[in-house]
């Protein structure tokens, strides 16, 4: 088992550096708990906070079981995968694209209409009759799916509690936001990340220099999941023993697709020509063929381009990124909008915008 799963806290008492979040969630029971939106950057601990909340509500960590169900969307039948335990279900409708509305209407409504097994036995309480549904990557749901979810929240609020886990709160429609309690999960500070990594290293019986841990924490920018993955890779390479992998330790801080985007950034800043544009197009196709989403490419490219520029150039890059992100959401061919953003950025750095 990888380290991020092996050492994931399952109780509020085990969560490091999350006192305010623990205090906000610890007072809830399944009866008085509202619908919740957990939002924050990737790797900030949203899933961990959710698992600790479930352990608190039901008295023990959930034993998740993989399930599949067949859902009909128009003339197409989908095999929808999700995980559940007694009284709890976790699902990600967004990964099924424009079929997410049918999944909301089918799977989640069906769960709201059925009773948990425990509630059918004598002495059942209100607690056993209320179920918890966690929707992952909620910001990626289509507007139609979010509208269907809003109606589901209204109809089954007596027997369902919905937890929406997302990175961007602004992409959820206002009717859903107005019905939920917001809980922002902030990223980890560098000190907190170093402390957690030291605890993991102690349990795994590894010794890593403090300078290396500091570099990992600075590179991961509050993303604990990534920090632990990089640390595990570092320890794996360090334990190889043949001395060949030690030379490449500095490269494990960045993923391959991020290095490609760094190359694109360098070309945009230094080579605003047609040859440079063609070279970038090939790199963009390489990224898209590696299943890196066009929006992820756009955001990372903007982040790298905006580093170290003056306020005027930053404003122009922001306008361009916002425009092409909006077009990307409405269109189906991300490569066109990525190329448009690259061309616009070249004009900015060439002084022609």
Give a brief description.
The chain is of the alpha/beta class and 353 residues long.
Plain-language structure description:
- It is built from 15 helices and seven strands.
- It is an alpha/beta fold and 353 residues long.
- Strands 2-3-4-5-6-1-7 form a seven-stranded mixed sheet, with helices on both faces.
- Strand 3 (76-85) and strand 4 form a beta hairpin.
Helices, strands, pairings?
Layout: H1 3-6, H2 19-26, E1 36-39, H3 46-58, E2 65-73, E3 76-85, E4 88-91, H4 100-113, H5 126-129, E5 131-135, H6 143-155, E6 160-166, H7 174-177, E7 181-184, H8 190-204, H9 210-220, H10 224-238, H11 256-270, H12 274-289, H13 294-305, H14 311-330, H15 334-350
Parallel strand pairs: 1-6, 1-7, 4-5, 5-6
Antiparallel strand pairs: 2-3, 3-4
- The CATH class of the largest domain is identified as Alpha Beta
**Strand count:** 7
CATH topology of the largest domain: Rossmann fold
Q: Mind describing the biggest β-sheet?
A: 7 strands, mixed
Distance linking N and C termini: 51 Å
> Into which percentage range does the β-strand content fall?
5-15%
User: Mind telling me the C-alpha Rg?
Assistant: 23 Å
- Count the DSSP helices: 15
Oligomer: single chain
Overall helicity: 40-55%
Overall form: globular
Low-confidence stretches: 242-248
Question: Helix and strand string, N-terminal first?
Answer: HHEHEEEHHEHEHEHHHHHHHH
Keywords: DNA replication
GO molecular function, one term: DNA binding
Organism: Ordospora colligata OC4
Protein name: Small subunit of replication factor C
């Amino acid at each position: 088992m990888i380290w991020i799963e092996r050492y994931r806290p399952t109780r509020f008492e085990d969560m490091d550096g999350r006192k305010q979040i623990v205090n906000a969630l610890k007072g809830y029971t399944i009866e008085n708990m509202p619908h919740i939106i957990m939002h924050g950057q990737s790797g900030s601990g949203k899933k961990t906070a959710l698992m600790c909340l479930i352990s608190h509500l039901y008295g023990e960590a959930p034993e998740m079981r993989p399930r599949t169900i067949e859902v009909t969307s128009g003339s197409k039948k989908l095999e929808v995968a999700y995980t559940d335990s007694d009284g709890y279900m976790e699902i990600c409708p967004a990964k099924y694209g424009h079929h997410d509305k049918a999944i909301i209407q089918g799977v989640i409504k069906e769960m709201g209409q059925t009773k948990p097994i425990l509630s059918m036995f004598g002495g059942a309480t209100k607690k056993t009759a209320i179920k918890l549904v966690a929707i992952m990557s909620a910001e990626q749901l289509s507007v139609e799916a979010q509208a269907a979810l809003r109606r589901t929240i209204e109809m089954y609020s007596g027997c369902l509690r919905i937890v929406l886990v997302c990175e961007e709160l602004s992409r959820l429609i206002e009717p859903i936001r107005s019905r939920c309690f917001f809980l922002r999960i902030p990223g980890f500070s560098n000190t907190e990340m170093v402390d957690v990594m030291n605890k993991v290293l102690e349990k795994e019986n590894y010794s890593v220099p403090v300078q290396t841990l500091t570099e990992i924490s600075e590179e991961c920018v509050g993303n604990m999941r990534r920090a632990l993955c990089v640390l595990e890779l570092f320890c794996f390479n360090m334990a190889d023993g043949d001395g060949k992998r030690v030379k490449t330790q500095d490269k494990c801080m960045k993923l391959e697709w991020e290095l490609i985007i760094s190359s694109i950034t360098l070309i945009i800043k230094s080579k605003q020509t047609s040859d440079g544009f063609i070279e970038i197009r090939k790199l963009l196709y390489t990224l898209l063929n590696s299943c890196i989403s066009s929006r992820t490419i756009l955001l990372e490219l903007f982040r790298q381009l905006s580093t170290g520029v003056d306020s005027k150039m930053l404003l122009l890059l922001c306008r361009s990124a916002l425009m092409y992100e909006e077009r990307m959401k409405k269109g189906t061919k991300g490569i066109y909008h990525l190329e448009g953003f690259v061309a616009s950025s070249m004009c900015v750095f060439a002084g022609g915008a």
